[in-house]
Amino acid sequence: MKKLLAEFFGTYWLVFGGCGSALFAAGIPDLGIGFAGVALAFGLTVLTMAYAVGHISGGHFNPAVSIGLWVGGRFSGKELLPYIVSQCIGAILAAGTLYLILSGNENFAIDSNQAGAFASNGFDSFSPQGYSMFSAFIAEFVLTLFFLLVILGATDKLANGKFAGLAIGLALTLIHLISIPITNTSVNPARSLSQALFVGGTPLSQVWLFWVAPILGAIVGAAIYKNLLQKNK
Prior knowledge:
Elements: H1 2-25, H2 34-57, H3 63-71, H4 80-102, H5 133-154, H6 164-183, H7 189-199, H8 201-205, H9 209-229
Helix pairs in contact: 1-2, 1-4, 2-6, 3-4, 3-5, 3-9, 4-7, 5-6, 5-9, 7-9
């Protein structure tokens, strides 16, 4: 139960901090944090919770990461579904909290026809810069693949584990710096689902890509590390 609670709180913080920075702080004229600030916020959520609860649950906070770690031999298959459920619940409740806060602004409304509405992910006309489904799939696949390489390498028994959280948090920051204009950045199915549920419409119908591409990328990244990079001694 403690592991599941750690995953719940970690994923809650990721969505609340990352998506919250996009919703509250990114677009303020002259003072907004912009894409770079949002990218840093997502990285900081993972970095802080990795050190706060990573020793309890492993600090996944992402269904694709959990699946990748299972493929990489670092995680038990019997814990996979409970972890994913906890992550999704944490993400959805965080999105609900964001919605409640935003509802306190009389000008707040979710436009389900607008790209990036409520920090949702999307492609084609729902991509921030109009990238196609193919481009979105490749970006999410490749970035999650490399995210797993970083995670598995930084947490390898031969690596300096004290800096694992820093490396993983900075990797997620870099991922967002690259891909916010493409898909609004997912690499995390729970994060995508939570926002899409509140937007509905096309973002919800497109959420499949933000499950399939990250999970496939995580599987391939884990397989590459396990079979080609990992030292067995």
